[in-house]
Amino acid sequence: MGNNTERKEQAVYYKHNGYNCCQSVLKVFEDRLDLSDEQLRALGSGFGAGMGCMKSTCGALIGANMVLGMTNTTGMPTVPMAKKLLAEFEAKSGATICGDLKGVSTGTVLCECDDCIRHAVEILEAM
Fold this sequence. Notes:
There is one protein chain. This protein is mainly α and 127 residues long. The chain has one domain (4-126). The chain has 7 helices and no strands. The chain has helices at residues 4-15, 21-28, 37-44, 59-71, 78-93, 98-101, 113-126. Helix 2 (21-28) runs antiparallel to helix 3 and helix 4 runs antiparallel to helix 5. The longest helix is centred in the last third of the chain and has 16 residues, at 78-93.
């Protein structure tokens, strides 16, 4: 995969072509994971519309955290890195819960799925 912008836009492309938000993030990092497309789809299949169908964590953030855990070769524990990922995602997107991001109870969308995917990929790439 090319530069960060290409990876972000490829992830958005996947979102609009049969992958959910989590699967899109997983798929765009397929070059770094030892998993097939079928395995990546299965791994992320329960996180469409956020974990718990918009009531819990954003699927794009979950996918990024999965990739982080599977690719962390820094020798550092993954948990503090995941905490940083979550904090940066919240700062860029306005929330980490799918329902909050989509404005389910407020009527105000904080961040569209495409941008949540872009943010997750961008933060992960920077790590």
